[in-house]
């Protein structure tokens, strides 16, 4: 299975992570999640691969987080919010089979390669 990267080309960390993968000789399947948002099932698989709470996958400084009062939201409510507002998904996320890592900093992804 190909390595996947949830990527925002406008994000410097996302571009740096992509460059790091290229240095490793890896050409991931790029998923521009803002144009092609993941559904709830996919987000739950990513969460399981990351082995983290959903709150770690959420960009809390984005306006939809503040505007929708998501600070006290349940995990299912956060997943639904990411589906509705893909900008909330932390980036970049690299998925390698059953493992995943958030590229903040980009070097975090090396442990799953």
General description of the model:
This protein is α+β, with helices and mostly antiparallel strands. The protein has a single domain, classed as Glutaredoxin, CATH 3.40.30.10. 34% of the residues lie in helices and 12% in strands. It is built from four helices and four strands, in the order βαβαααββ. The protein has helices at 12-23, 40-50, 63-67, 75-84; strands at residues 4-6, 29-31, 93-96, 99-102. It has a four-stranded mixed beta sheet, with helices on one face. The longest helix is centred in the first third of the chain and has 12 residues, at 12-23. The mean pLDDT is 97.
Please state the structural category.
alpha+beta
Please give the number of β-strands: 4
CATH topology assignment: Glutaredoxin
Count of domains: 1
Structural shape? globular
Low-pLDDT segments: none
Mean pLDDT: 97
List keywords for this structure.
113 residues, four-stranded mixed β-sheet, 4 helices, 34% helix, globular
Brief write-up:
This protein has 113 residues and is an alpha+beta fold. The chain contains four helices and four strands; from the N terminus they run βαβαααββ.
Describe the secondary-structure layout.
Blueprint: E1 4-6, H1 12-23, E2 29-31, H2 40-50, H3 63-67, H4 75-84, E3 93-96, E4 99-102
Parallel strand pairs: 1-2
Antiparallel strand pairs: 1-3, 3-4
């Amino acid at each position: 299975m190909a390595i996947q990267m949830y990527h925002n080309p406008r994000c410097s960390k996302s571009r740096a992570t992509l460059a790091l993968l290229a240095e490793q000789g890896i050409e991931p399947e790029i998923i521009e999640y803002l144009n092609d948002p993941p559904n709830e099932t996919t987000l739950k698989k990513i969460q399981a691969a990351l082995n983290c709470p959903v709150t770690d996958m959420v960009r809390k400084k984005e306006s939809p987080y503040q505007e929708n009062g998501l600070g006290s939201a349940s995990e299912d409510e956060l997943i639904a919010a990411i589906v509705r507002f893909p900008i909330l998904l932390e980036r970049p996320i690299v998925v390698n089979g059953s493992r995943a890592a958030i590229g903040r900093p980009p070097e975090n992804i090396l442990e799953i390669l």
